[in-house]
Amino acid sequence: MIGADLVVLCVPVGAFAEIGQVIGPALKPGAVVTDTGSVKQSIIDSFQEWVPESCSFVPGHPIAGTEHSGPESGFAELFENRWCILTPSPDTNIKAVEAVTKFWEAFGSRIEIMDPQHHDLVLAITSHLPHLIAYTIVGTADELGDDIKSEVIKFSASGFRDFTRIAASNPVMWRDVFLNNKDAVLEVLQRFTEDLTALQKSIRRGDGKYLFDTFTKTRSIRHEIIDQGQADYKAPGGVVQEGTPPVVAKPATE
Amino acid sequence: MIGADLVVLCVPVGAFAEIGQVIGPALKPGAVVTDTGSVKQSIIDSFQEWVPESCSFVPGHPIAGTEHSGPESGFAELFENRWCILTPSPDTNIKAVEAVTKFWEAFGSRIEIMDPQHHDLVLAITSHLPHLIAYTIVGTADELGDDIKSEVIKFSASGFRDFTRIAASNPVMWRDVFLNNKDAVLEVLQRFTEDLTALQKSIRRGDGKYLFDTFTKTRSIRHEIIDQGQADYKAPGGVVQEGTPPVVAKPATE
User: Under an 8 A CB cutoff, do B137 and A179 touch?
Assistant: First the structure.
């Protein structure tokens, strides 16, 4: 018997069925179980059945973290002002949802309740596709000859290094994400490929207007992210500040 | 007549032919001209012919900068410890190359001399492809319905926001880069697409081993970039530090 009132599972998405089998029968009656997995529907499908009637499962996903993993990579401010998405089924004990909400709010998180399948689609675009793309481009560079590879590393400050950060994320965690959110990832990947093909064609044809129009549209999303305090802003002087930049330093619009 | 001994051109790559026509005849005899453009061969092709016999053109590319543009986005430490690539032709006056070298070293830059076409290939992978990919993924998100777009912004901390930073770069500058480095960009884009297709297939087939192996390989490049001091390292506590992380905070290897 596990004596805990609240159990927080922080393991790769593919491990939940096995963990459910082991801990399900040992949960204390009335215990609340939550998790931090990056895919929600597949975890519900593989884990919910092992949770005893008297216990509650409140699936969760804190949208925070770095490319580093393991307990030693944590720090006190990690969840401050970051969202945590909970995807309980409509018949979950409301007190259990409240307990998990309070848990995350104690770290400074903001809570969003969401349908698990909708979560998986939103995260496919905001997280799973970006990671897939980053892994791909870093892998493409890795397969170049050794000469050019050393130059890629040397001159990475020109854009490439932004991709290497997320491509350094935990391989087991990300393998499991893609295996368990296949449909949503393939759907957004299809859209991405169509858009990339259109840009490729415009480069081949020398269509400067299409390039300019595409590159102009994308700026506004960045500004909205900064305005909502979800991005660090590197101010002149190189000092990283959280949230809204001072007006004087807003991007030049040429 | 321009009285300057050293002229530094900081304009979009597509503007060099026109600028050459205007300033070429007005350059002071013996003047040294350099530039900061992101593509080198096309600038040489369109600008060199306008430089008088008595003057020297030393093409340059400082590998530094943020997504912000314009003079007001500069700061004193911008070039410190960053590379600046010079691509002079073999018959350039050595004193002119030395003058431009000293100019950049005064800002703290390190100098690399390179063949212009080789520069364009290296930058196609380290800079032009990453920007193209970032513009694409942010554009893909932008075309989603308004409901899901607001959620993408809200939950961007999960990976997406890293792409929005470089996709907020100057559209005129980047239009000109792609129009003027077409062959190298299309070449590396082809390799990228092949690698992405292979990952897509492995997701569709549920090939966890291929995913795991790919995601493992890519970690080492990040560590080399950090070791070479070309990446900021976000230490536990959220404080950004330059260069090598303390040993205790190295990424967990699970």
Answer: no
Q: Considering only CA atoms, which of A17, A39, A16 is closest in space to residue A180?
A: A39
Q: Taking CB atoms and an 8 Å limit, are B164 and A221 in contact across chains?
A: yes
* B contacts of A160 (beta carbons < 8 Å): 125-127, 130
Domain B6-114 has CATH 3.40.50.720: yes
The predicted complex's ipTM stands at 0.86
What fold does the segment set B119-233 form as a domain? 6-phosphogluconate dehydrogenase C-terminal fold (1.10.3660)
Class of domain A119-231 as given by CATH = mainly alpha
Whether domain A6-115 has CATH 3.40.50.720: the reply is yes
CA distance B189 to chain A (A): 8
Q: Can you spell out the DSSP letters for A176-198?
A: HHHHHSHHHHHHHHHHHHHHHHH
pLDDT in tens, chain B (254 residues): 779 999 999 999 999 999 999 999 999 999 999 999 999 999 999 999 999 999 999 999 999 888 888 889 999 999 999 999 999 999 999 999 999 999 999 999 999 999 999 999 999 999 999 999 999 999 999 888 778 888 998 898 888 988 888 898 999 999 999 999 999 999 999 999 999 999 999 999 999 999 999 999 888 888 888 888 766 544 444 444 444 333 333 333 32
